[in-house]
Amino acid sequence: MTSFLSRFPRLGALLLALALPLAARADEGMWLPLLLKQLNEADMQQKGLKLTAEDIYSVNRGSLKDAVVQFGGGCTGEIISNEGLLLTNHHCGYGQIQQHSSVENDYLTKGYWAMTRGQELPNPGLTATFIVRMEDVTGQVLQGIPAGVAEAEREKTVLQRSAQVAQQAVQGTHYKAFVRPMFGGNEYYLFVTEVFEDIRLVGAPPESIGKFGGDTDNWAWPRHTGDFSLFRIYAGPDNKPAPYSKDNKPYQPRHSLPISLAGVQPGDFTLVFGFPGRTTEYLTSWGVDEIYAVSDPARVKVRDAKLRILNEDMQASDKVRIQYAAKYASLANYWKKWIGEMRGLKRLGATARKQQQETQFRAWVAAGDPTRKAAYGQILDQLEQQYRLVRPYVLARDYTTEAALGVELVAYANSLQNLVDLIQAKAPQPELATAVEKARRGTSNFFRNYSVSTDQKVAAALLPLYADGTPAELLPEYVQNLRRQHTTPAAWARFAAELYQRSRLTSDASAQRVLDELLKGNAQALLADPAYQLAAPIVATYRQKVLPAYSAAQDQITLLQRTYLAGLRQWQPERKFYPDANSTLRVAYGQVAGYQPADGVQYAYYTTLDGIMEKADPTNPEFQVPARLVELYNNKDYGPYAHNGTVPVAFTATNHTTGGNSGSPVINGRGELIGTNFDRNWEGTMSDIMYDPDRVRNITLDVRYMLFVVDKVAGAGHLVKEMKLVGLPGQPAETAPADKKIKKQKVKVKREKAAVAQ
């Protein structure tokens, strides 16, 4: 094929053009709001959007973006009242709900509702971040950097310039700013933010609603989970961010989302606005294979073992259940996601499809001029070489982070390493005292949610996985000796029992006494502890043998991937590319739709309260239903939130989402809230790597179920009263601001077509 194309370059170019992959398939993509006008507006309006790009993202006036926040560090939330009321997922607020819970006041189990503003609970450390504006600053960041510069040197320059750009953008204001790379570092964008830090818990349903279905239903459809919680943003007297104060006032937003009770139908337009965390859509076949065949299997294996132990102890003790609720949920979430991801990649033949694209790319390069061949001729071969070099270090990374440091005692012991370093470096006493005081606070927080007996069982299970799974040459000698001495599960259990019996780092009181000794300059108090003696060589080996080689290979992969992605965009100039997710504000749009998960199986696009009652099982804690919900169901007391004699609970659509989109508003074509995104279907979890339009679905909590729970189940109707509800039965839907403009545009286009025809 190559020789044929080289002999007939024009014909070859034509054949290659016909063979090119299609542009981003229907509903695929996580788009930068700044670029919607030029890339997506027409397509969105064709699918049912009644707004303009300016209505979605605007710097000069209130727009949809001003009702969307990054909630904490890893979720999204939306403003649903002019008094700063914030809606997000139950699992996004789970950590805060847990922190306010105790055996006596078990808000996880019973739920919590503030009936007055005075009952709204503060959450130190929790933030809500608005995007004020974004800007393409590629020229400022990359100007003058030579093409062949070493990756480490390039990154140093990029970071320095990015910091300067961010600082200059907010100088003299209360705003914050950061710069993020797009397309592997081919482009850079500035994000100016406003960060609020007084965020209070307003309401959360009981786990029997907020986590209904538990791990069984997680990443699954049909879904019946009332996955929501309510918070409120408070501001200072000038409506600007301020530290917590009882004198702060509810924040008055530039825009809050009206809530539609009109419901959804198949084909309806849906827009998801949020902060997706991380995707890798442009990986090569070797990158996909690394995830599918190396990393995911290792991480799933370790979490299998850990989750089994945590689950047993949580079921046996309410104290342990509360201590480990958030940890377990976090571990289980991605454990199940990775299993689905592997299955989805296998079903799609993802590696083979990437190989096909690479074959076409090589042919395009071969058919090009010398400049093209010089730029891209060796890229794929070099990427393959780097992926082969990095594979053992990927295994070592995963087993160190998941297994070795998955033992909390090992991770805690390692966290005190800096105190030994300060003592051995003879740091000034004030510096050491400050570090010890910080460690004291961290120690108290650590032991508040720690069970020594549970962690001992985890150690007995995970340490042999670390010893057996890590390539021998990357395993510390200390652990190699342990492996030779402990060849059975019983032997590892005895080792763990002795370790936890001898260590002084297994309780708050004894750990604080170790800190007392460290404050006096006695490093031996930690150096002699068996937990530290285990942690130190594990971390030292990781830092000395694993991390440098892994980072060097990844630097090369990053550089080569950047060049490869530039080549892909040059090869496919007609394709609309979107940058991989990196926790920056994005728009994903699609349509309400069911799907076919397997041969002979068809899933509807919605679920209802009837399905909750069908799943109800009082003997299974994941499927228990609160008595109040049963009562309302039996009496058919649904208020204005019913449709066809029941209450809608959730629906699916084709929006491209990922972690970080949890809590994202799902908005209809008129700019009204119709639901809150909370999950993906299991068959679609590989969409972080490869999107499948037939099976990828985001799962949304229908806003009518949220309102029903708040109003009828919780009796917190005062919260509903501060929301703006539209589309009530008998009430026409509001006309969006852009409706008339779009209609005029369509009329104008029709007239122009008629004139041309004449």
Describe the model.
- There is one protein chain.
- The chain is built from 30 helices and 22 strands.
- It has 758 residues and is an alpha+beta fold.
- It has two domains: 42-127 and 197-280 and 580-726, Thrombin, subunit H (Beta Barrel); 285-570, no CATH class.
- The strands form four sheets. Strands 1, 2, 3, 4, 5, 6, 7, 8, 9, 10 and 11 form an eleven-stranded antiparallel β-sheet that branches.
- Helix 12 (285-316) runs antiparallel to helix 14, helix 18 (417-424) runs antiparallel to helix 19 (429-448) and helix 19 (429-448) runs antiparallel to helix 23 (508-519).
- The longest helix has 42 residues, at 530-571.
- The radius of gyration is 28 Å and the shape is globular.
Which tags fit this structure?
Thrombin, subunit H; disordered N terminus; 758 residues; single chain; alpha+beta
Secondary structure category: alpha+beta
Quote the beta fraction: 5-15%
Spans of at least 5 consecutive residues whose pLDDT stays below 50 are 1-24, 732-758
Q: How would you sum up the major sheet?
A: 11 strands, antiparallel
CATH class of the largest domain: Mainly Beta
Number of contiguous helices = 30
Number of domains: 2
Report the helical percentage. Answer: 40-55%
Determine the CATH topology of the largest domain.
Thrombin, subunit H
How far apart lie the N and C ends?
A: 49 Å
Tally of DSSP β-strands: 22
CATH architecture of the largest domain: Beta Barrel
What coarse outline follows from CA principal-axis ratios? globular
Rounded radius of gyration (Å)? 28 Å
Mean pLDDT metric: 92
